[in-house]
Amino acid sequence: EVRLVESGGGSVQVGGSLTLSCAASGFTFDRYLMKWYRQAPGKGLEWVSRNDAPGTYKDYADWVWGRFVISRDNNKNMLYLQLNNLKIEDTAMYYCVKDGDGVRGQGTQVTVYE
User: Fold this and answer.
1) Strand order in the sheet with 18-25
2) What is the per-residue pLDDT across 84-112, written as a single tens digit (0 to 9) for each?
3) Could you give the 3-state DSSP secondary structure of residue 113?
4) Long-range own/partner contacts, residues 28-34 (CB < 8 A, 24 or more apart)
5) Dihedral angle at the C-alpha atoms of 26, 51, 64, 21, nearest 10 degrees?
6) Is 14 helix (H, G, I), strand (E, B) or coil?
7) What's the burial of 111, exposed, middle or buried (CB within 10 Å: 0-12/13-18/19+)?
8) Percent of the chain scoring above 70 in pLDDT
9) Buried b (16+ CB within 10 A) or exposed e, 65-84
10) 3-state DSSP of 31-100
11) Which of 7, 56, 70, 113 is the most buried (most CB within 10 A)?
């Protein structure tokens, strides 16, 4: 069974940083592109970033503006998203998503306050 478990969210002041983690199991992690999505209150799912299977190619939504860094450790079956210079509008539930079937975890909440 494919399982993704996100962690690392929390409440942080504007301009602060958080590192999100996603523990993957039930599939061959190093063969899959992985993505981060987010969902703000009252809004739909929004793509944030993706990392190819070897971890070499990284891509971000335009609005990220260099503030986030995606990475992975294939030896540990872990995906990460470092969030820097956080803004109020970054408040959302963040999900890691497996490419192909779109399986995602339960999410981790990020709340940014003034």
Assistant:
1) 3-7, 18-25, 78-83, 68-73
2) 999 999 999 999 999 999 999 999 999 99
3) strand
4) 29/74, 29/77, 30/54, 30/74, 32/98, 32/99, 32/100, 33/99, 34/72, 34/79, 34/96, 34/97, 34/98, 34/99
5) 40
6) coil
7) middle
8) 100
9) eeebebebeeeebbbbbebe
10) HCCEEEEEECCCCCEEEEEEECCCCCCEEECHHHCCCEEEEEECCCCEEEEEECCCCHHHCEEEEEEECC
11) 70
- Token pair 């970033």 is found at 49
The single residue listed with the structure tokens 């003034």 is: 114
Q: Which residue has the tokens 């210079």?
A: 85
